[in-house]
Amino acid sequence: MKIIKKIEYNITPILHGEITRLKNDCFPEHSKPRSYFKQLPHFRFLAYEDDKLVGHMGVDHRVISVGESIFTIFGVIDLCVSSQYERRGIASKMLCKVSSLATKKGIDFLFLVADNHKLYEKNGFLMISTFLSWLRISDHKNYGVAVERIENELMIKQIGSKAWPDEPVDLLGYLF
């Protein structure tokens, strides 16, 4: 198995098609005719087995505010593995790659939204519950800013030395 990092603007239309098929197979209830749900990520990790795309993880690089603190984060987006390749550690290997890159680049936290927490907890993520502000985006339309208390969906992984305060979070952009 091989995992490569691809900057978004270097992804070809053919590769976008492969990512779209994988993402839609993994998330059929959120199927879209594109390689992303809400917004293009900044870069992606792609897992290949014998030249076949079997895993995908989008990553957004941004700053967020948590109370009075400002953190740099990598937001993990659309992590998925083909059903024929599940339970082989591919998702954990991609999470290890993004964690390693985050450490090298001085990122404070990894941040993600998930319904199923088991994989992420196994990889060092902690669940948080907080008031969250984000830009509501759906099908290329902006519906304004949302502010809600979010329970049992937000997860963080500390990378740097900064502590996560128990304060409201403003994503300063869309929800991954």
From TrEMBL:
Residues 6-148 form the N-acetyltransferase domain. It comes from Lentisphaera araneosa HTCC2155. This is Probable acetyltransferase. InterPro entries: Acyl_CoA_acyltransferase, GNAT_dom. CDD domains: NAT_SF. The keyword Transferase applies. It comes from the Bacteria. The keyword Transferase applies. Keywords: Transferase. GO terms for molecular function: acyltransferase activity, transferring groups other than amino-acyl groups.
